[in-house]
Amino acid sequence: MLSHGARTHQRRVFICLAVLCTVLLSCCCLDMRLCLQLLTISVGCAAPAALAASVQPSGTLALGPSVFTAPGAFPTSLFQAYFNDPTATSAQPQPVISDPVTHKKYPLALTDPDHIPQADNVDPHPLPPKASDSKLLQQAMAQIQSIRSNPIFANSTCAACQATLVVGKMLALAAPGQGPALSVFICNLFDENGNCEANFGANALGSPITQVLANADVAGADGQMFCENFLGASKCPILPTSTLNLTTWFAKPKPNPLPAPKKPSGERLRVLHLSDVHIDPRFANGAEANCTTGLCCRENAFNAQSPNHTLSPAPRYGSFLCDSPISLIGAAVESIPVLTDTKDTGFAWTVYTGDLVSHDSENQLSRDYILYTETLLYSVFKQTVGSGPVYAALGNHDSYDQALDAPHAIGGELANQFSWNYDHVAGLWEHEGWIPQSAANLARAHYAAYMVRRSDGLRIITLNTDLWYRANYFNYINVTQMDPSGMLRFLTDELQDAEDAGERVWILGHVLSGWDGTNAMKNPTNLFYQIVDRFSPHVIANIFWGHTHEDQLSIFYANNGTNMSAETAQTVSWIGPSLTPLTNLNAGFRVYEVDSATFDIVDAHTWRSDVNSFPALDPQTAHGPTFVYEYSTREAYGANITQWGPNDPLNATWWHLVTEQMEANPDLVTLANAIDTAQTFNNFQGKESVRTPPVHGGLRRGEDMLYPQRVIEPRAAELPGWVRVGTMMNKSSQERGCPCRCPRRASAGAGCY
């Protein structure tokens, strides 16, 4: 046992050693001898003898020679084995290395200078685990939320929208089953619709939108136009029309000079033009006819000012904000043969320019609802318009989902996803005896579009204009292309065949081209315009559209309308009045007098029924709606076209002369003719509806036609959320809860039809 003094000495030694270490570290830059002296003074203890002995005075340290030359040969004793000759001078020695820990012998390939590896495909490269579909959806939503809140996108709603679509595209490709849920999320985020789940969920538009996101270039032109049109990204610039190269499009140049016009026969055929019947089999007598959301005259319709009490009961024959009840359709088809004096003879043929189905919202539609409507109405036509064939085109509402038709180029099973409808209507048209089997086969293969070559020398070509309609989501795949569906290739080839055979053509469709650009995609309709220019006026006799519900017309000019004159006017497109009163219109139809040899229209007659009179018919059953003769086109507009004979056609030249008269004399816009000054140019378009707004400011020339300037005069709650621009009746989905899907821009032609 140590004595107290010994223990004290021991503690001093330990302390000295500790202090020694600290001082040495802090004094490393000093002379070591001085450092030791400081140590002794500071702690009162002697430095260890061994340490003191090792410190020599500066300059006295023993060193080896100042120069050494290593041997030229590699010291082979460093390693036990080599892959090559370590004494050779042509390459570096490659020793064999054995790892004492892993017991692994490393191969020459690891360090072989002649074969340096380009990729490590042996070692693990960890990745995060594959996310479940639900987690992908959660992450997509989180990223979209971040995009919305990121200040980088604060001044660019267009960029934010496209970035959102990029996230959506990745989800659509990786977990397509989650696409509809993301569509609903985006809908709610952008506040696009009051019922996002019903309209964009898995049982509605969620599926086609997912397809579009998966196939479109959403970061490029496709996404830019998608955002501009559907998501209200007003700062997205509208893409200009793509440069059109027609070098190889047409098989032959336009004949110069043109073939001599066909000589009129003097025999006039009667042809019926029906459009936009929009039967509502769910029409409820007595329901709210002046509703403020959705389609009126339905049990679920109401007016926000009186949600629990009906303000305006729906008459059984229809009302201004409702589609056609079957009672109105029955009255119309009973009236047509009597009024047109075709009860015994029937019509030579009938053209139907689309839209059989009602304006239901997405969640209220189904395939069977479409098929039911098609079967019912084509059967009615067969029984009532006589033995002549009915040539029909599909409208944007004659599909499910509405306005959607996918191009075959989408590929795989999706290429035929709408064939159920094409097969059905083709079968019905063939069953009714309206088209031959060859035309039915064309319809099945070409989106329900077909060509019929009549025995009298006229060819009827129908088009599915959903394939250029702005509301068709599938049209936002490859927006820079002119004909992604191939429909216009089909049209061009058929027109070339007609030209080669010396025959004339009528073209039928639903959504009109041209106009002011708000109904149709620019690139396909630009190509269509060039096709019309190439084959007019010698091949294309007339074009027929529907869709707007109004009585209208447009003129196609040569050279893109750069010079609008009687000499450059090429072809007329007739836009048929609707039978449905929607929106704020009277019900109507038209009959053409057609020369049997030239197939030019010599006159056109329009009838209408006053929807404002329908409520008075409810208390009795003795009388139904009255259809009255409205006007003769030749008489209404041709009084001052003195150079035109009574049998000359109402062709593009005649119509241009009419527009010149209107421009020169604005009174002609108001006074249709001297016989009945109540029939005005403006009122003819609305079929003389009491709700047709007046004209202010004369005419304005559009892309390919003139049309009156209209302003709205609100009538209390009668016209909630409706605006008039040009000749189009537009309905803003934001203002009135539009039951159909349409482009967001509230400008002429952008309404719901």
Automatic annotation (TrEMBL):
Pfam family, one: Metallophos
InterPro entries xrefs: ASMase/PPN1_MPP, Calcineurin-like_PHP, Metallo-depent_PP-like
Keyword flag Glycoprotein: yes
GO (cellular component) term, any one: extracellular space
Keywords on record: Glycoprotein, Hydrolase
Annotated ranges, domain Calcineurin-like phosphoesterase: 269-550
Gene3D superfamilies hit by this protein: 3.60.21.10
GO molecular function term, any single one: phosphoric diester hydrolase activity
Protein name: Calcineurin-like phosphoesterase domain-containing protein
Organism: Dentipellis fragilis
